[in-house]
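Continuing from the previous page of notes. For each protein in this section, the sequence appears first, followed by its C-alpha cells. Read the first protein now.
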Amino acid sequence: MSAFIEVDDLKFDYIKQDGTSLRAVDGISFRIERGSFTAIIGQNGSGKSTLAKNINALLLPTEGRILVDGLDTADPASLWEIRRRVAMVFQNPDNQIVSSIVEDDIAFGPENLGVDPSEIRQRVRFALKDVEMEEYRRKAPHLLSGGQKQRIAIAGAVAMEPQCIVFDEPTAMLDPRGRSEVLKVIERLHDKGITTILITHFMEEAARADHVIVMNKGRLEMDGTPTEIFSMQDRLKELSLDVPAPIYLARILGERGVDLPPGIETTEELVRCLCQLQ
C-alpha cells in the first residue's frame, strides 16, 4: 500500500484572545497507508481532534506539512479537493444534521459539490444502504436515536464519495447499542476500501484498527500495530490509558496456564479461541 496521508513535523498553535499562543500539536510525523484503518488515541487535550482537523484542512499547520494523496493542505488551490477526498464525522450527530428529512440531509454535501441531481439520488440510495438506514429515508432526523443519527451523518459523508473518512470520537455520546451499530458501519466502510481514521477514547475500538497512534500533550508518543501498542501496558498506564479488556483478560488467562494464541485483540477473537479449547 502507498501512503495516502503524510504528516511531517506538524506543529499547530491556537491563538488566544490575549495574543499569546497555545501549542496543541508539537512536531509529529507519521504516515497513513491508503486503505488502512488507523486509530488515534490519547487523553483529552492530547491534540487528537486538532490533528484530525489538520488532516481535513479545516485547520492549517503553523509549521510542518501534511500531504493528502500528494496534495499540500496549506495550498489554497488544493483546499476543496482535499475536503472532497477526506470527509469528517464529528462527535455530536445533532451538530451535523442540516435538513428536516433524512434523504435531504444526505444529499446536502453532493449538492454543494455541484453533482448532477440524478447522480445525487443514486449516491443517497447507496449511502443509506451502506449504513443500513434505507427504511428511514423519509423520516425526520430528530425522531431517530443517537446511533441512528450518527449513521445518517456517516451516510452524508459517504455520499461525498471520499477516499478517506476521519471519525472524530463518533461513538462518544452513544449508548452501547448505538456504539456497536456505528462501529459496524465504520468497519464495513473500511472493508470497502475507504481509508479510515478513528479518533476514540474506547480502547476496544482502537484494537480493531490495523494501526494505532498514541498522542500525549501534542506529541506522538507511540505508533504501531494494536498488538505492539497494547503489549506496552505499563507505558499506557503512565499515560492514563487502559488496555482493551479482551487483551488484558487473554494475558491473565495465559499467565494462569490457559493455552491461547498470541495477538488476541477483540472480544470475538477471545471467545472463539476459548470455545476451541473445549
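Done with the first. The second protein uses the same format. Note its length before scrolling.
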Amino acid sequence: MREFEVYVPLLYNDGRPVEEDKIIHLKARLVEVFGGLTHFPQENEGLWKIGSFTYRDKIVILRVLSSDIAKAHSFFTGLKREMLNDWGQADVLIIEREVYTF
C-alpha cells in the first residue's frame, strides 16, 4: 500500500488566490480515482530558496492511499503536468510513501 500526498498551492505564482472550484474539483477527482482522501485543511507555509531569493507558498495537503501503484503513478504524473500548466505553478510537490495498515 502506498500513500500519496499532494501539496496543493493556494496561490498562483503571482500571488492571486487559486479559485476554490479548482480545489473542489481536484478533491472530487481524487475521491473518484482512489475511493477517498484525507484533506488537511490547515494552511501551511512552504519556503524554498533559489539563489538569494526565498520563495513562500501557502498550501493545503491532500492524501490518498492506493494499492494499484502503476495506476497511481500514471494519475499523479498527469496531475502534476496539469497543475504545472493549468495552475501556472513553477513546481508541485507530490510525495509517495510506503505504508502498512492494520
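What the second structure shows: The CA atoms of residues 64 and 84 lie 20 Å apart. The first strand starts at residue 2 and ends at 9. We return to this in next week's lecture.
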